Amino acid sequence: MENNTPSGKSGSLLWTIRYTLINATYFSAFCTIHACAAVFLLGNGFSNTEVGVLLALANIVSAIAQPVIAGIIDKQGALTNRRFILFSVLVILAGSVILLFSENNKLLIFPIFALIYMIQFAYQPVMTALCFEYQKAGAPIVYGIARGLGSASFAVTSAFIGGLIEENGIRILLYINIVVMVLSAILIFTFKKPSEKKMEGSAGKGASADEGTTSPSDGNSSEDSGKEAPNSSFPAFIKAYPAFSLFLVGVICFFFAHNMINDFMIQIIRNLGGAEKELGYANFLQAILELPVMAMIGLILKKLSSKKLLLISGVAFLVKIMILIFATNMGHMYLSQSCQLFAYAVFIPAAAYYVSKTMADHDQVKGQAFVTSAITIGGVFSNLISGVILDHLGIRPMLITGTAVCAIGVVIGFYAMLKLPAREKK
Fold first, then answer.
1. What residues contact residue 57 under an 8 Å CB cut-off, 6+ apart?
2. What are φ and ψ of residue 220, in 5° steps?
3. Rounded to whole angstroms, how far apart are CA atoms 169 and 216?
4. What per-residue confidence (pLDDT) applies to 232?
5. For residue 196, what pLDDT is reported?
6. How distant, in Å, are the alpha carbons of 143, 254, 291, 336, 346 from that of 316?
7. Smallest Cα–Cα separation from 208: which of 353, 17, 367?
8. Residue 389 CB partners (closer than 8 Å, separation 6+)
9. How sure is the predictor about 245, in pLDDT bands with cuts at 50, 70 and 90?
10. How many other C-beta atoms are found inside a 10 Å radius of the C-beta of residue 239?
11. Considering the chain, what is the average pLDDT of its residues?
12. Where are the alpha helices (DSSP H) in 305-363?
């Protein structure tokens, strides 16, 4: 346990900085692993179809694993949010080291890269749950700022990574990832929850959800266990949260389009006359635009509900991919990436707040995991279909397919949020 728990503004700043650094290392590695996955794999001799199959398999395993992991953590046993994150970081670190000695060895690269790609997705919702867990224990973390600065870390990494790849080759991705994972392991290992006594002293000091720190629980609390039984099965979860459950289908469609752009961005950019450097700039633009939205999410939620924000984000995902159908130069690519301001940047914090506001404490980790699972499933279908379309038909047919699927998701999302009931926590 921590030896002391700072209070007031200085305490909030310290806890937020520490959680921000965890986010920063995560999203820096997210850039080297996920945003540059196609670059790394194509550079090691994989075809577009093989890239799609590898990423799809990794996403399938991740989608299955996330709710299972959340269910185990919800039981409050030996596996905690923090311990699972630390384990994940160490696996990614070990996998990156192995890949250093696996150049052009597709038989070894396939399972190792799939593993680190999968496990990094798997612990993303656990990081969100960790924040809410620590808030409940008295750590006044400002989630929106921390998450926004995590995106800024992705942006900074993206700004330099394209040029570094052009100058040094794809192995630079592994070196950067190893350094970042070492730092992440140290940060997680030293990030310990306040004790119960200090929790009592700090209760009530944090801001409300609308003020930015949020006070949702992480699902590890048994505070309401005497009132309601946990929705351990998926059918029971659907019955308890029908609007959210159907909206997840819309999320799958949104991220079918989103992952199509991200996973094959280098191919889209090359088609527009760019290269790895422009890939870095495009990723930088979309990531840096996430910062102001995520940092100000508490203020935005005072004007618009998380439900409305989720619907706005769905429309923005659709506009983002539609622009690319008609793109003829990199300016159009950057315009499309600018839609991130209203798409991903709004969706991620809005989804976290929606879960915290509408779900019982014991379903919170599960709810966060289902959001990430839906995102991952969208990636699965995108990976399987996009690579094949790209190899056989080209860029534009791939983007038209993504647009059609995203449009279906928007319709589903509006029906789920506007027509179906959603519970509100008291």
1. 114
2. -90, -10
3. 44
4. 55
5. 52
6. 23, 9, 17, 10, 9
7. 353
8. 397, 398, 401
9. confident
10. 11
11. 82
12. 306-325, 330-338, 344-358
**Which residue type sits at 50?**
E
pLDDT above 70 (res 43):
yes
7-20 pLDDT tens trace: 555 567 788 889 99
Q: What is the pTM of this model?
A: 0.69
For 278-309, how does the pLDDT look when each residue is reduced to its tens digit (9 = 90+)? 888 888 888 788 778 877 877 888 888 888 99
Distance CA 13, CA 36 (A): 32
Q: Element (H or E) spanning 420, and its range?
A: none
State the Cα–Cα distance between residues 128 and 123, nearest whole angstrom: 9
pLDDT tens digits, 301-343: 888 888 899 999 999 999 999 999 999 999 999 999 999 889 9
User: What is the C-alpha to C-alpha distance for residues 290 and 312, in angstroms, rounded to an integer?
Assistant: 15
**Nearest by Cα to 316 from 176, 243, 410:** 410
Query: Cβ atoms within 10 A of the Cβ of 275, count?
Result: 13
Best CATH choice for the domain 8-197+209-218+233-419 from the list 3.90.1150.10, 2.170.270.10, 1.20.1250.20, 1.20.1530.20: 1.20.1250.20
Q: How far apart are alpha carbons 378 and 372 in whole angstroms?
A: 10
Q: What is the mean pLDDT of residues 115-140?
A: 85
Task: Tell me how crowded residue 96 is: count the other CB atoms within 10 A of its CB.
Answer: 24
205: its two tokens: 């000091």
Locate the domains of the chain by residue range.
Answer: 8-197+209-218+233-419
Distance of CA 329 to the CA centre of its chain: 29
B/e letters for 243-270, b = 16+ CB within 10 Å, e = fewer, are: bbbbbbbbbbbbbbbbbbbbbbbbbbbe
Amino acid at 294: M
pLDDT on residue 248: 93
pLDDT of residue 10: 58
76 CB-near residues (< 8 Å, 6+ apart): 220, 222
Question: Which burial class, exposed, middle or buried, applies to 335 when counting CB atoms under 10 A from its CB (0-12, 13-18, 19+)?
Answer: middle
pLDDT, tens digit (0-9, with 9 covering 90-100), for 360-371:
777 777 787 788
